[in-house]
Design goal:
There is one protein chain. The chain is globular, with a radius of gyration of 20 Å. The protein has a domain of 85 residues: Sandwich (Immunoglobulin-like), CATH 2.60.40. By secondary structure, it is of the alpha+beta class. The two termini are 36 Å apart. A five-stranded antiparallel β-sheet has the order 1-11-10-5-6. It is built from three helices and eleven strands; from the N terminus they run αββββββββαβββα. α2 links the parallel β8 and β9.
Length: 163
């Protein structure tokens, strides 16, 4: 009986190791910065230092292991300024974005080069939870793929095979 208790105690003390792999790719300066596996937020960057982009008619397609397909289309005159980050929050999520205010002791040159953060609360209840994997694609108004962001959480067995 003592041996069984030792085995049970060892099992309780062991940690389950998982590994999550994030991948992103873009064809241009408008790209995914992140996509929450919990379905709270999708983040898009414009890394161009000078050019704004009109995302009117652009759309995001998201597939997860728990939900097959979700599409979000940007509305009229949705402009992403240079060096801007857009956080697209689901309507039930709580935003955790940094303050948009800048410190007053910055020079105008520093002000121009600083990243801008814009938080938008969408009408989507959720971006769909992804427990094991998600694939997020950004398309322009002509249906051309502009960016991909994916995540995959490896099970302990898959994780061990990779090591």
């Amino acid at each position: 009986m003592a041996k069984m208790m030792d085995i049970e105690d060892n099992i309780k003390d062991e940690f389950i190791h998982t590994k999550t792999i994030f991948r992103r790719h873009s064809k241009g300066p408008v790209m995914f910065n992140g996509c929450s596996p919990s379905g709270d937020v999708i983040i898009i960057d414009n890394i161009s230092p000078k050019k704004s982009y009109d995302l009117t008619g652009w759309y995001i397609e998201r597939q997860t292991n728990s939900q097959k397909f979700l599409r979000y289309t940007f509305t009229d005159k949705f402009i992403i300024p240079p060096l801007a980050t857009i956080e697209l929050w689901s309507s039930i999520a709580t935003s955790m974005s940094p303050s948009n205010e800048m410190e007053s002791n910055q020079s105008s040159e520093e002000h121009e080069q600083q990243q801008t953060f814009v938080t938008i609360k969408t009408k989507l209840l959720t971006w769909n939870t992804a427990r094991q994997w998600s694939i997020n694609k950004l398309f322009d108004c002509h249906g051309h793929e502009k960016a991909i962001f994916s995540h995959r959480t490896l099970t302990p067995l898959e994780y061990e095979k990779e090591e």
